[in-house]
Amino acid sequence: MRTLRRNFISRAALAAGGLGLSAGQGLSAPAKIDTPFKHSVMGWCFGGRGVKPRELGEWCVKLGMHGMEGIPQAAYKDVMKLGLEISLVGSHGFAQGPCDPKYTDMVIQKLKDGIEVASQIKAKRVITFTGMRYDGMDDIKAAQLCVDTWKKVVPLAEKKGITICFEHLNSRATEGKMTGHAGYFGDDVDFCVDLVKQVGSENFKLLFDIYHVEIMNGDVIRRIREYKDYIGHYHTAGNPGRGEIDASQEINYPPIIREIIKTGFTDYVAQEFIPTWEDPFKSLKHGVETCIVR
């Protein structure tokens, strides 16, 4: 993939259920967490534990979080009634993406639909992926097709004030379901940044998933510094296993979060770990607390 890349370029105190609430704020309506960036969670991760979007949204409110993502569009209304934003709107899935010409029309339509939904609900971001490799694929042509396809929807995103966030995924992890995505085309974050540069729009950014970057490339803090102008969203999870961001895994999150803050980032950092603790609420609480650094 590196060859392809070269070629393609020619707490204040804890309170009530959560985290430092603002002075004078009643327990029935916790204030939002006071950090330079916003806090969110990927709903699908908790679905496997039987946590429905509405319940997860109530947890987010209790913890002072700002948004949710990775939930069905049918759940948006209930979640937004809780005072939460939809931090990232879905589009096409990660398996069928613009690197494969048979999905070009579908990807364009799904992204346009996602942009329209985001605009309607006052969300600011829509997700996209490269898709999976296929037999006989030419890497250079596939990369160009990704860029050409995204460029067809970027004008609508610019018009609506929506940022399309392109996610890098790892193709290496195999220890459990959804820990890795063998065959994913955009599995080198440096290559993915090159694609973002080729699209060339402030409304097309990288979704920097710390877990995936750690597995495929490492050197996370240096890459955050280097790519800060191209990053529009962050995801977290523990490695290995995609579990909680606790002491059982290798990624040291507090200094990473401090570096994100140093870059001036003010958008969303979303928890995307698969909870393994007995109480998944405590898992989420711990993850959010870990990302509150002073």
Main traits of this protein?
single chain, 294 residues, alpha/beta, TIM Barrel, six-stranded parallel β-sheet, two-stranded parallel ribbon, 11 helices, 8 strands, 12% strand
Total beta-strand segments: 8
Report the sheet with the most strands, covering strand number, pairing sense and barrel closure. Answer: 6 strands, parallel
Integer-rounded radius of gyration: 18 Å
Residue share in helix: 25-40%
Termini separation: 37 Å
- Strand portion: 5-15%
Tell me the number of structural domains. 1
- In CATH terms, what is the architecture? Alpha-Beta Barrel
What's the helix count? Answer: 11
- CATH superfamily, called what? Divalent-metal-dependent TIM barrel enzymes
The secondary structure category is: alpha/beta
Q: How confident overall, as mean pLDDT?
A: 92
Provide a concise account of the structure shown.
The chain has helices spanning 2-9, 44-47, 53-63, 76-81, 104-121, 139-160, 189-199, 210-216, 220-227, 253-262, 280-290; strands at residues 38-41, 67-69, 85-88, 125-128, 163-167, 204-209, 231-236, 268-271. The chain is α/β, with parallel strands linked by helices and 294 residues long.
Question: If you had to describe this structure to a student in words, what would you say it looks like?
Answer:
With 294 residues, this protein is of the alpha/beta class. 39% of the residues lie in helices and 12% in strands. The protein has a single domain (38-290), classed as TIM Barrel. It is built from eleven helices and eight strands. A six-stranded parallel β-sheet has the order 1-8-7-6-5-4. The protein has a two-stranded parallel sheet with strand order 2-3.
